[in-house]
């Protein structure tokens, strides 16, 4: 047996709780070289020497705790260079080690303390070495791991961590978390996952640990993979008890990356069921995701719970909540949030002010809308088109058309450039008032400013002429519209026909109808107008022409024609 061991490439002997791998050189029985690999003494390179010659070579020495385990195995002869120094002398058939010095040198990238490219593709956890530790204080060694990890020296930090484990020492959880972060920064996901499993199995774990790994999985494998990992962890009751709001906040933020509001709501409900109270970060994430996904009712519920739990909202959350309340038409809540911002010395932004002004205007709260406008000016905000249009729209909806036109003049004096939308809002008030001359004035201003006047704008001007019973002016605007190569639509022709009917321009009505493709809406409007104005024969003529073109009259047109036919028959019968 001894002869077999002497001639073998390598063998390992485990005794007294420590492991030793030994290699005997084939060239000489009396000289032996050792090296450390993966935490054991390894027999090394053959050395050519003379008898009784004292030689030096490099050694990495580590004693590895084991438990009554003996292994014999060959290992490859093409070993790297030896990295430690020792002295040996021949004493019969034994080798006596006189002096050994441990070396912490490893195969690292010189700049980042990373594994070299010659690591044969092994993971860092299995390729790392362990060292003899003179320091035995766990707190001090944990601090060193922390500092090495923060310095991005991942190999050194991992080797120190493994050395502590092999020496029966236990790094604290902060050291492990810092090491995990360091591994992930250097793209060592597999090593980080193995370390994470070790931490789980040994109950050395915190919520921050879960948060680190969930973020890493989301970044490398996608949000769904991270959510699957969390679901698996959540099913384990022994692990779930280690969850805290840091973990839940991390998962909520992962849901928010893909706007997954359904999963976010489910997670929020589980937080409530488990008796946790959300933090400012929790509610900020919930509200942001719900508002972004147009789930304003959920956002309002989250905000209500936030206030009930005594959590102070940030200004960005209050801005988001004002917009959410406006969309749900909860103006009272929006006003209270706005007032709270002012009371807390915060400055509501222009978007929040505009949203509130627009909402109040739609709700008929004209005075409040202008009060918010005054506050907005006092805060130093400059009104934009949305501000002005909200105020003009509020006055228009309140049938205060003259006030709307006065406000428009103020806006025009304060601003050199006014948008087409503001002009159209002013033209709407002109149409309601029948201010055809003011409408024409605004139209010339728009064209003079080089604005691209739309069909809608011309329709509003023609509508103002219709209200004012100015059919000839309406026809002139229509001709100008055609000259400007602006294409009229059905609303243009309807307004023009109604205007001509009220102006008794019957020939123009028929001319308009003959110049256009058959349109049921236009024929209905013309027949109804003629019937109401007593032009029964003209109406009947158009009615038969309408049927000839395959158009079906609406109920009002048929009723008027039947009524006129009965009157006509009654008159004829009376005459006979």
Explain this structure.
The chain has a domain at 2-101. It starts with a helix and ends with a helix. The protein is built from 28 helices and 7 strands. By secondary structure, the chain is mainly alpha-helical.
Class from helix and strand fractions: mainly alpha
Rounded average pLDDT: 79
- Percentage beta strand: 5-15%
Shape: elongated
Note the topology:
Blueprint: H1 2-7, E1 11-15, E2 18-22, E3 34-37, E4 40-43, E5 55-57, E6 85-91, E7 94-101, H2 124-127, H3 138-150, H4 154-166, H5 173-185, H6 189-201, H7 207-221, H8 223-235, H9 237-240, H10 245-257, H11 261-273, H12 280-292, H13 296-308, H14 315-327, H15 331-343, H16 350-362, H17 366-378, H18 385-397, H19 401-414, H20 420-433, H21 436-448, H22 455-467, H23 471-483, H24 490-502, H25 506-514, H26 520-532, H27 536-548, H28 555-575
Name some characteristics of this structure.
mainly alpha; three-stranded antiparallel beta sheet; two-stranded antiparallel ribbon; 7 strands; disordered N terminus
Quick take:
The chain is 60% helix and 6% strand.
């Amino acid at each position: 047996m001894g002869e077999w061991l002497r001639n073998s490439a390598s063998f390992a002997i485990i005794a007294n709780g420590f492991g030793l791998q030994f290699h005997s050189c084939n060239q000489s029985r009396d000289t032996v070289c050792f090296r450390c690999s993966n935490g054991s003494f390894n027999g090394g390179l053959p050395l050519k020497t003379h008898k009784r010659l004292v030689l030096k070579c490099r050694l990495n020495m580590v004693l590895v705790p084991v438990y009554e385990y003996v292994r014999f195995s060959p290992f490859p002869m093409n070993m790297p260079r030896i990295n430690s120094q020792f002295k040996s002398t021949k004493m019969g058939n034994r080798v006596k080690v006189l002096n050994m010095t441990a070396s912490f040198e490893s195969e690292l990238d010189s700049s980042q303390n990373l594994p070299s490219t010659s690591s044969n593709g092994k993971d860092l956890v299995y390729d790392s070495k362990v060292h003899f530790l003179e320091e035995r204080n766990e707190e001090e060694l944990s601090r060193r791991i922390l500092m090495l990890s923060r310095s991005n020296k991942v190999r050194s930090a991992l080797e120190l961590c493994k050395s502590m484990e092999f020496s029966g020492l236990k790094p604290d959880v902060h050291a492990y978390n810092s090491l995990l972060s360091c591994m992930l920064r250097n793209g060592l996901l597999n090593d980080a996952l193995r370390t994470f499993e070790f931490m789980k199995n040994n109950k050395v774990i915190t919520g921050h640990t879960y948060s680190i790994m969930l973020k890493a999985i989301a970044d490398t494998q996608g949000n769904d993979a991270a959510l699957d990992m969390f679901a698996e962890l959540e099913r384990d009751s022994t692990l779930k008890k280690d969850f805290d709001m840091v973990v839940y906040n991390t998962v909520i933020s992962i849901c928010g990356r893909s706007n997954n509001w359904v999963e976010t709501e489910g997670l929020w409900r589980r937080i409530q069921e488990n008796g946790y109270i959300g933090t400012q970060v929790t509610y900020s994430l919930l509200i942001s995701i719900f508002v972004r996904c147009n789930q304003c009712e959920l956002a309002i519920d989250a905000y209500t719970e936030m206030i009930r739990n005594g959590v102070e909202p940030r200004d960005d959350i209050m801005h988001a909540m004002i917009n959410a309340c406006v969309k749900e038409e909860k103006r009272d809540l929006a006003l209270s949030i706005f007032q709270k911002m002012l009371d807390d010395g915060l400055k509501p932004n222009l978007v929040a002010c505009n949203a509130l002004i627009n909402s109040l205007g739609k709700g008929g709260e004209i005075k409040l809308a202008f009060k918010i406008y005054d506050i907005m000016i006092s805060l130093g905000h400059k009104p934009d088109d949305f501000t002005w249009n909200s105020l003009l729209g509020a006055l228009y909806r309140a049938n205060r058309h003259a006030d709307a036109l006065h406000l428009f003049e103020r806006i025009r004096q304060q601003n050199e450039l006014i948008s087409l939308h503001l002009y159209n809002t002013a033209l709407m008030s002109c149409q309601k008032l029948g201010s055809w001359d003011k409408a024409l004035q605004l139209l010339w201003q728009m064209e003079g400013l080089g604005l691209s006047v739309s069909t809608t704008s011309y329709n509003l001007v023609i509508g103002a002429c219709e209200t004012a019973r100015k059919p000839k002016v309406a026809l002139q605007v229509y001709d100008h519209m055609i000259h400007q190569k602006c294409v009229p639509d059905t609303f243009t022709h309807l307004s023009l026909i109604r205007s001509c009917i009220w102006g008794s321009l019957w020939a123009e009505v028929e001319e308009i109808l003959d110049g256009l493709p058959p349109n049921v809406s236009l024929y209905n409007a013309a027949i109804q107008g003629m019937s109401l104005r007593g032009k029964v024969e003209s109406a009947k003529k158009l009615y038969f022409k309408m049927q000839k073109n395959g158009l079906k009259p609406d109920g009002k047109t048929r009723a008027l024609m039947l009524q006129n036919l009965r009157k006509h028959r009654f008159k004829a019968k009376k005459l006979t």
